[in-house]
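Technical annex, item 7. During the second reporting period the consortium partners agreed on a shared format for inverse folding records so that results from different sites could be compared directly. Each record opens with the tokenized structure and is followed by the designed sequence. A conforming record, contributed by the partner at site C, is shown below for reference.
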């Protein structure tokens, strides 16, 4: 009788822990899914993104692939507010890039963050 009671308690505890983790994860995901956009429409790429394999030339004779694809950085040129000092701010096009090392955010959470102000195109930044 005692062993069936302890088995029942351990199963109940496992179910409770599983449900707690499931609810906590769902609350955490819904808190992270806040919009990062500066406008109501969200972030949109300004042009097509082209991914290319970067190749290295060795001994001026042959071209060798590095074995691993190196992708071009994904950046957007969007309006943002740039400030010089505490009071002088102006809205201008900024180059946004993906940052996955956000403070106080869990691993894997990324966001578009402004990298430079007054960009003509992100490729030049």
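Designed sequence (site C submission):
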């Amino acid at each position: 009788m005692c062993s069936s009671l302890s088995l029942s308690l351990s199963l109940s505890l496992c179910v409770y822990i599983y449900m707690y983790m499931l609810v906590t994860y769902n609350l955490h995901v819904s808190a992270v899914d806040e919009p990062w956009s500066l406008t109501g429409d969200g972030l949109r790429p300004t042009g097509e993104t082209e991914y290319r394999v970067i190749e290295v030339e060795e001994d001026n004779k042959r071209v060798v692939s590095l074995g691993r694809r190196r992708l071009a950085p994904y950046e957007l040129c969007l309006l943002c507010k740039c400030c010089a000092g505490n009071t002088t701010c102006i809205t201008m096009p900024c180059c946004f890039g993906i940052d996955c090392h956000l403070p106080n955010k869990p691993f894997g959470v990324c966001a578009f963050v402004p990298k430079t102000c007054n960009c003509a195109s992100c490729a030049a930044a």
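The CA atoms of residues 23 and 96 lie 33 Å apart. Residues 35-124 form one domain. All partners now use this format for quarterly exchanges.
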